[in-house]
What we know:
By secondary structure, chain A is α+β, with helices and mostly antiparallel strands. Helix content of chain A is about 25%, strand content about 40%. The longest helix of chain A is centred in the C-terminal third of the chain and has 14 residues, at about 145-155. Chain A is globular and about 40 Å long. Chain A starts with 6 loop residues before the first strand and ends with a helix. By secondary structure, chain B is mostly helical. Chain B is rod-shaped, with a radius of gyration of 32 Å. The interface of A and B includes residues 45, 138 and 147 of A.
Amino acid sequence: MKTADLKVTTPTERELVMTREFAASRGMVFDALTKPELVQRWLLGPPGWTMPVCEIDLRVGGKYRYVWRNADGREMGMGGTFQEIVRPSRIVATEVYEDYWTGGETLVTTELVETRGKTTLSTTVRYASREARDAALKMGATKGLEASYDRLEQLLTA
Amino acid sequence: MKPTGYTLDTTFAALADPTRRAILARLATGEASVAELAQPFEMSQPAVSKHLKVLERAGLISRGREAQRRPRRLEPRPLAEATDWIERYRRIWEGNFKRLDAVLQELKAKQKKTVDALLDLGKPKPNKKRRPR
């Protein structure tokens, strides 16, 4: 099966939008996004990370919390509160990282649209401000600094 | 009056010059004064200053507070932006979504099995023929 294209766009200076199609009904995709035992299997980030903690209280006002761990035992936690849940088409939740300053909470809107048995998932991440977005990206790059130094080095020795 | 979006164009233009890239490489190891920067490049200080201005305008370096030396230091943020964070973000999520594809395939297979089993229940069993009493 051909891998579906992931689109990442920044429609405004405070927003980041990701879109991707999945070969499954949206009920199924919704489950994979909201059932801890399923989430733990795919929402892992860069290679080498696992998700030992995944708690999801799927109701408006309910909280969720994820903790990731890498091979060195380093942990990263993230969580938030559900603001809107419309099964199987829409989830709105706040999101905040525990150990990084990311300029406060971000608001994440997830929308699922099903056409002919395929589901388009779109995720909109809205930051509190442009500065918050920059901070998040700087951190989202956890290793971004090192990586950019590495890349700079490659550039320089080229 | 600071960092309002250095455009990628400005950043790339600043990075296009080998001397400027060498200056950045030097600054990646720690801050340095104009004189310290001029030395290894065998350039005059005004010539180095010109390059530094370009780098400064692109937001790639800044000046330290120390009044005498005014050491320049690397500003990693625009550089990180230039080496495109979106790509990094995309790579992470591509990995996530590939795993999600696999989870969904498995769910579909399971659902099919359940449906097949239910359909099977409705079928008459082939070797248990009903016989009239």
